[in-house]
User: Fold Histone deacetylase domain-containing protein from Blepharisma stoltei.
Amino acid sequence: MYAWVDLTCWLWGAFMIVYGICLSAGESDIFGFDEVAFWICAGAGFFLFYPVILEFILWLSSQFFTPSPPSLNFSNLVPIAYHPSYNITAGGIEKMHPFDSRKYGKVFHVLKERGIIKENYLIPVKCPRSILRAVHPFSYLLMLCYSLSITTKVEVPVCFLPEPILRFRVLNPMLYGTYGSLLAGCAAIEKGYAINLSGGYHHCSSRSGGGFCIYADITILIYWMRYWYPDKVHRVMIVDLDAHQGNGHERDFIDDEETFIIDFFNPNIYPGDHYARKAIKFAEHITESDGDESYCSKLENAMTNCIESFKPSFIVYNAGTDCMEGDPLGRLQITPQGIIQRDEIVFKHALKNKVPVVMLLSGGYQQVNAPVIADSISNLFSKFNL
Ligand SMILES: [Zn+2]
Assistant:
């Protein structure tokens, strides 16, 4: 609904500018202005200010509604969240970014072919404003109404595209992904584990996005899990194994003693956020010299020691696969077999200690990532009899 109102307003602004341009200059004047200048200025002003009004109405209306956890019978569902809208397409523009933005659908279809997913999986909706506003302030959500601001977060030159197109093609897929993380969180409380085939936007904090991350789904997930299940979710461990430092959630939980962050990352690549690193309770710098054996051995030690000392009641596993060999952005050397072993280690420790775990796919920029992720999830289901 919002996206369509947005599109209508945008078209109205565009119409005013085009109408102004089509007029012959100096033919008449309105309120003392040249008519051409009047319509162009009115259109430009409308472009700037209609989002403020729309966002304010949405923000105000969401104040009167406190969201409840999804009323689903999770015991009858395979705890894997997926929606076709996860896949980001924009008439080929998405190919300018190294991110394989359609990997979600590829993983889903392989899992379906293998019979792991049937018809009974988690289907998210678009994350409502009432959920977002708990974490993202009005000013941040307002900035997402402007193409230029979205460009700085997705790091693709899309500022020339009308904002409604970006809303349909970029923001909405991430809104589905964000709610998918939340749905998976609720399922994990019931089943002990869950996987969202999207999410893990770990460069986005409540006040700032970046690195193709627009909504802080990890912070949102933890906030609502603690709110909805105060008796079950209190001490939260984030295990971030994406090749990049998870500076978004780190900034959000920098002063939170009830959140323990383990981050294995390549310190020589984006984002190099030294302030956010203060939030990491267990940091491991991974470089090209780390092979599968060294990587998995470090992870095994980290999981054993940190779970024993921190005693988490909930684990968010950010399972980015851009640490796989050949990834031009992650620049690490973990093999597909190492990825499978890595996921197995995290699940083994969570299940053994009976701590609900939510796995989010996060980064992973190569075309070969989807089959490896599907193989790894298949391995988890067979290995642990899920
Ligand atoms: Zn990454």
In short: The mean pLDDT is 90. The beta strands are 29-30, 33-34, 78-81, 121-122, 193-196, 236-240, 259-265, 282-285, 314-318, 357-360. The longest helix spans residues 163-191.
